[in-house]
Amino acid sequence: MLVRLTVKDYVLIDSIELGLDPGFTVLTGETGAGKSILLGAISLILGGRSDAGSIRSGASRADIVAEFDISNLPDVCSYLEEGDLGDEDCVLRRVIDTAGRSRAWINGIPVTVKQLRTLGGLLIDIHGQHEHYSLVDSSTHSQVLDSFGHLSNAVKSVEGAWRSWQSEKTKLNQCLEQSEAIKQRTEELLETQRDLDALGFSGEEWIQTLDQHRKVSNMSELIDAANQSVHMLGDDEQNILTILTNIRSSLTRVVEIDPQVDAMLKDLEGLEIQLEELNRDLRRYAESLDFDPGLADVLDRRIAEVQRYARKYSVKPDELDELNLSVQAELKKVSSHANLEELRRAEAQTREKYFETARQLSSDRGRSSIELTQKVNDALADIAMSGVRFEARLIPKGEPGATGLEQIAFYVSTNPGAEAKLVGKVASGGELSRISLAIQSVVHQDSAVPTVIFDEVDSGVGGAVAETVGRMLKTVGRRAQVLCVTHLPQVAALGDSHWKVSKTQSKTASSTLLQKLNPKDCVDEIARMLAGEVVTEQAKAHARELINSSLS
User: Fold this and answer.
1) By the 8 A CB rule, do 151 and 446 touch?
2) How far apart are CA 252 and CA 314, in angstroms?
3) Going by C-beta distance under 8 Å and a sequence separation of 6 or more, which residues neighbour residue 297?
4) Of the residues 196, 369, 382, 398, which has the fewest C-beta atoms closer than 10 A?
5) Do 447 and 328 sit in the same domain of this protein?
6) Residue 405: which domain range?
7) Do residues 511 and 526 touch, judged by C-beta distance below 8 A?
């Protein structure tokens, strides 16, 4: 709710500060005192249109600040949190300079007027001549009807069903759009897999093939080297083994002369043994070498085949194994993509669920609209507006949506026999206020705007009707903070709090003042409203009677 309003240098207001209470607050004062000016300031803080002409004469700017208690307003807290505007305090500020420039802040953070207007719509609802009364905004009518019919859970169910349907619909559309691309990619992957399967490639086999190809390509050199080595070791007249044998014979002859020779003889014998083994190995190796021109052709073809597929898929030959693994993985991923028919079934099921839920909401709204229409018309009759006929209509939407299959619109006929039109198109400011009051008096909103302001709600009424209007306002004030500008003592007497608006004049300027009245001052002000300029004791007595009767 609105807990404090500070206005500086706005129209006739020099500087005022209102500390506002819960319940039903009335604002009274003589015509021209500045009550409408105060509502204009509130309209500005809610994002209304600014005008440099609204700055007090001689001042450089108008400055309006409103502080709200949002402890029980989760929607407001969510808006602040989502916008990084704080989540505990709620202070709105609007400044207008003489050039017509407007600046706005929420909790000290600069914001746009649009942001101010959005947040303001969650905090205050004005019914009267100003911009922010919700009754002319048809988008709010569904909220009113749904609240009246206690349909918030049903609305949430429809919203949930809508989101589910749209989610499945999006998946289906994406799949339809991608199906051709997926099909083409699958064919490409399968072709690659067929090629690789036919190739029968493995990294280990490729290394062996290259080694074998290198050996076959150099077979002549290998045979020559092996044969030459065998010849030099054992076949040549001056082969190494013969030379070693001669060395051993020479050393044997002198071994008895010098014992050290014996150790060298033993080393020589070991060397001979190793060379003989090497000679045998070389002979076997030489014998194993067999130049097969057919094998060379086979290896050439294999290498050419591997290289061809490597070029086809833009990889190195030794990367074909990795390519094969990646193809298998992608094929698995593609094959796991939701089946198109499954998506169609899911979309159909969620669509059916949405329409089932939405049609039930439509039925509930239909019953609620009949009841709301009757109760509002009864309330209008109570406040002397029996000639005004109210109707809550369900208007089918061109397309289904998150809020259901229809939009709600409030229609009124202000004269018997006249065609009913949208309430904002035919009703005057005073009529709108009273129609709004009638609606507010019968609707128990689950998430009502915490502060409701009524202007001109008592225009053209008096006597018992005025008291009925006042009691309606007091009833609404039990669940919301209500501020009402009134000229009727019957209404003023019912206020839980009473502020008087007055105007002072000097030779050079006029100023609007506000005063919160104590019980005695309330009697005096209501007596003035009853009697006019000359307040008699009789008027005061009547004022006390009105106040006392309001307590019953």
Assistant:
1) no
2) 70
3) none
4) 398
5) no
6) 2-160+348-516
7) no
